[in-house]
Automatic annotation (TrEMBL):
<dbReference type="InterPro" id="IPR006045">
    <property type="entry name" value="Cupin_1"/>
</dbReference>
<dbReference type="Pfam" id="PF00190">
    <property type="entry name" value="Cupin_1"/>
</dbReference>
<feature type="domain" description="Cupin type-1">
    <location>
        <begin position="61"/>
        <end position="206"/>
    </location>
</feature>
<feature type="signal peptide">
    <location>
        <begin position="1"/>
        <end position="23"/>
    </location>
</feature>
<keyword id="KW-0964">Secreted</keyword>
<feature type="binding site">
    <location>
        <position position="116"/>
    </location>
    <ligand>
        <name>oxalate</name>
    </ligand>
</feature>
<dbReference type="InterPro" id="IPR019780">
    <property type="entry name" value="Germin_Mn-BS"/>
</dbReference>
<feature type="binding site">
    <location>
        <position position="111"/>
    </location>
    <ligand>
        <name>oxalate</name>
    </ligand>
</feature>
<dbReference type="InterPro" id="IPR011051">
    <property type="entry name" value="RmlC_Cupin_sf"/>
</dbReference>
<keyword id="KW-0464">Manganese</keyword>
<keyword id="KW-0675">Receptor</keyword>
<feature type="binding site">
    <location>
        <position position="111"/>
    </location>
    <ligand>
        <name>Mn(2+)</name>
    </ligand>
</feature>
<comment type="similarity">
    <text>Belongs to the germin family.</text>
</comment>
<keyword id="KW-1015">Disulfide bond</keyword>
<keyword id="KW-0479">Metal-binding</keyword>
<feature type="binding site">
    <location>
        <position position="109"/>
    </location>
    <ligand>
        <name>Mn(2+)</name>
    </ligand>
</feature>
<dbReference type="GO" id="GO:0048046">
    <property type="term" value="C:apoplast"/>
</dbReference>
Length: 214
């Protein structure tokens, strides 16, 4: 019986400590953690800038304009991430503007660490994502929104007669983007290995390597 009393007493002490600790943690949580970009980024984000040095400009990005479309895909991308909008640090969100010229496209790519909400504001865009079993694709017009689940390969093609514009929100303050063409042809993976694993013609592979890096 005495042992039960001791256990109960220890349990009450532990519970009391936990409640006090949680109360202290909650009361000391910062409203925000503006990124200190003078330090390297880490898996947990940037360290916080001292509140004494935080200004409203840490929460404003003023260059959310059309990106350069002079590239093989005729697409421009402007991203507001923690790297140029420090106030996003730790908030798990970022945004992009996508400008697709006539006959342009956003190549097949995926975000290993973010789901994407894609919002059409101008033109017509045929967009979709791919699973091992099915392709989900639809032609979108201004006012339409499509979601691309995290990690799935997706794409957008300008299917209208003029320039197309869209905005995207992503569930990461610093999302990564892996473009399939760059993964295959922008490194030192040999032509032989690409041929054997994709059945592409070697001459096509060499041409794409020249275009995307090597």
């Amino acid at each position: 019986m005495k042992m039960i009393h001791i256990i109960l007493h220890l349990f009450v002490l532990l519970l009391s400590y936990t409640i006090t600790s949680q109360s202290h943690t909650t009361s000391s949580v910062n409203d925000f953690c503006v990124a200190n970009l003078s330090f390297p980024n880490t898996p947990l984000g940037y360290p916080c800038k001292s509140p004494l040095h935080v200004t409203v400009n840490d929460f404003v990005f003023s260059e959310f304009v059309a990106g350069n479309t002079k590239n093989p895909f005729n697409v421009g991308l402007t991203t507001a991430s923690v790297n140029n909008l420090p106030g996003l640090n730790g908030l798990g969100i970022s945004a992009s503007r996508i400008d697709i010229g006539i006959n342009g496209s956003v190549p097949m790519h995926f975000h290993p660490d973010a789901t994407e909400l894609f919002i059409i504001v101008q033109g017509r865009i045929t967009a979709g994502f791919i699973t091992p079993k099915k392709v989900y694709v639809k032609t979108l017009i201004p006012g339409d929104v499509i979601v691309f689940p995290k990690g799935l390969v997706h794409f957008q093609v300008n299917s209208g007669t003029g320039k197309a514009i869209a905005f995207a929100a992503l569930t990461s303050s610093n999302p990564s983007m892996d473009v399939i063409d760059e993964v295959l042809f922008g490194n030192n993976l040999s032509t032989f290995m690409i041929e054997k694993t994709t059945l592409l013609d070697p001459s096509q592979i060499e041409e794409l390597k020249a275009q995307f890096g090597l």
